[in-house]
Design brief:
alpha/beta; four-stranded parallel sheet; two-stranded antiparallel ribbon; 21% helix; globular
């Protein structure tokens, strides 16, 4: 089985939505979640909330206040084969199989660049197809 990690920044304001985020990525093959917290005073609340949803995560307290480097705090902890670096409000819709492993098998590459499409209310029927938006390198 291919091991796939999600790395994302998190704060208290995103907690009401994190359950659907975890559920979605579990359904397409993510095997571990690394959440990076920037605010020490939120650590316990975030950890308690996520631990009620899944045990398959690590909450990392970032040591830097530099926003552009927050998620890099997780890189030393990750042992999975592939890393998906997304925000907690970004959901990957697969159009080439049912899992991220299917995507990896179809496009044998070290790096995948994916075009994101903003879709309100989970309605895809009124938007142009994003087929072919995957670039493998």
């Amino acid at each position: 089985m291919t091991s796939i990690a999600i790395v994302t920044r998190i704060n208290e304001i995103e907690l009401p939505y994190i359950g659907s985020f975890i559920s979605h990525y579990n359904s397409i093959g993510v095997t571990r979640f690394y959440f990076v917290n920037q605010y020490q005073e939120q650590y316990d609340t975030i950890h308690e909330y996520i631990s009620k949803i899944t045990s398959n995560f690590k909450l990392i307290q970032a040591k830097t206040e530099e926003v552009n480097q927050i998620q890099h705090a997780a890189f030393g902890c990750i042992s999975e084969e592939f890393i998906l670096h997304v925000d907690a409000d970004e959901y990957l819709e697969l159009r080439c199989g049912n899992s991220i492993s299917d995507l990896i098998k179809k496009y044998d590459a070290d790096l995948y660049l994916i075009k994101w499409v903003i879709v309100p209310n989970d309605r895809f029927e009124n938007f142009p197809s994003i087929r072919g938006s995957l670039a493998a390198h």
